[in-house]
Amino acid sequence: MSTLVLRGCAVATVDADGAEYADGHIVMEDNRIAAVGPGPPPRSLRADRRVDARGCLATPGLVNCHHHLYQWLTRGLAQQADLFAWLETLYPVWARLDAETEYAAARAALAMLLTSGCSTTTDHHYVFPAGTGDLLAAAVEAAGSLGIRFHPCRGSMDLGRSQGGLPPDEIVEDRDAVLDATERAIDSYHDPSPDAMLRVAVAPCAPFTVTEELMRESAELARRRRVRLHTHLAETVEEEDYCRDKLGRTPTEYLDDLGWLGPDVWLAHCVHLDGTAARRIGETGTSVAHCPSSNARLGSGMAPVRRLLDADVPVGLGVDGAAAHEAGQLVPELRQALHTARLRDGARALTVREALRLGTAGGAACLGRAGELGSLEPGKLADIAVWRLDDLGHAGVADPVAALVLGPPPRVDLLVVNGHPVVEKGELLTGPADEIVRRAAAASRRLQG
After folding, report:
1. Beta bridge partners of 153
2. What is the per-residue pLDDT across 374-383, written as a single tens digit (0 to 9) for each?
3. For residue 136, how far is the Cα from the chain centroid?
4. Rounded-to-integer distance, Cα 80 and Cα 298, Å
5. Is residue 115's pLDDT more than 90?
6. Which residues pair with 427 in a beta bridge?
7. What band does 171 get if pLDDT is binned at 50, 70 and 90?
8. Nearest Cα to 104, choosing from 64, 135, 126, 130?
9. Which architecture, in CATH terms, is 62-366?
10. What is the Cα–Cα distance from 411 to 186, expressed in whole angstroms?
């Protein structure tokens, strides 16, 4: 058994009681947390490694519950477009994706997440051009090489422009092919064990890119195979108009009628929800991935996070695709979520500790892993971020959680995933950063032609 001990750091457990220690310790045994508490660890404790974390704050590793890794290669394009115009600009570029470019994009995006304190991420991949190799396998390989906990979503689109959808026909798939590929992905990669590093979800893209038949059959497949469901919802006014005009219902009513709402579902964005929709999402146990920077970048609006939380909706945070959030880091989303909530609903709309909870326990709930991830408690998986807070950007901030959420993004002194250090002193331990950068830059040039 391997034992790793952190000592001397502030600790924000993000447990149900919100326990915090100004000077605490954490003991990890193999891939589990064995102890968390105030003061130093017991002197009699034998450890393979002890880390002096004075000047730092330890939190659960951040959980990113909405992303599109392939978009790393198309950052900086369509800079002043709204969602529909942005998609119409980028669809033809994404149509040139292949397994090689997908691997390069995924490695770069995942490396950025890890070095910004994110220990678990999802990836909603829904663009599968014909004859371009196994793109999902490329992302899985990239995640495995870097040591991040990974929840890839086998996405899909089958509603092309000729049928009244938004995407060009050449990048949508046949419905039966989608369902077959999704089932193969579950067979190949999904691990239901409690300490899984890899789990698969079923994720049709959005109401304006997916037929009602595929939405229904995807839900049936996911529930038969006992995996989670994910999709975009209520991201823009244009989507609301599309659903009312084409489907005769709001986006939330549409999903509800399809039997999509439930505790095995998490929805991305949910910007345009009235009180009735928020309550219905809460009543059904459905979760929401809030993506404040992406929503701001595309001018989509501000999600009603306070309303959702008050309706008992589990809310997590998502970076979203790097083409709509060029920074690709999750830790700045803590501050962006707080600022967005307060711009929308006033200064009391969200606290710094609620913002931290969105990025940790809330994300774990979205991914169906609240019992395993998202808080620092004995028995939970050892996914821990240690943030350096005694530097120029944070010195003098009396409250370490406020320093993390409101201050500049701090250096990750240590990131442990499943009991293994993957980042130390801001440096990635599991992959050559220079090679990842070169490969991503070359792939981006090739993709953009």
Report:
1. 124, 201
2. 999 999 999 9
3. 17
4. 7
5. yes
6. 424
7. very high
8. 135
9. Alpha-Beta Barrel (3.20)
10. 36
**Domain range list for the chain:** 3-60+374-428, 62-366
CA distance 260 to 280: 12
Q: 10 Å Cβ neighbour count for 170? A: 12
Say which amino acid occupies 298. L
Is the full-model pTM beyond 0.70?
Answer: yes
User: Which residue, chain included where needed, has tokens 């609006």?
Assistant: 301
Rounded-to-integer distance, Cα 235 and Cα 382, Å? 34
What integer pLDDT is reported at residue 44 of this predicted model? 87
Query: 253-301, pLDDT tens digit by residue?
Result: 999 999 999 999 999 999 999 999 999 999 999 999 999 999 999 999 9
CA separation for the pair 114, 328 (Å, rounded)? 10
Non-local CB neighbours of 31 within 8 Å, separated by 6+ positions: 195, 381, 382, 418, 419, 420
Give the CATH number of domain 3-60+374-428.
Answer: 2.30.40.10
DSSP letter string, 361-417: IIHHHHTT-TTTSSS--TTSB--EEEEE-SSTTTTT-S-HHHHHHHSSPPPEEEEEE
> How large is the average pLDDT for residues 62-89?
97
The mean pLDDT of 398-425, rounded to a whole number, is 98
pLDDT at 281: 98
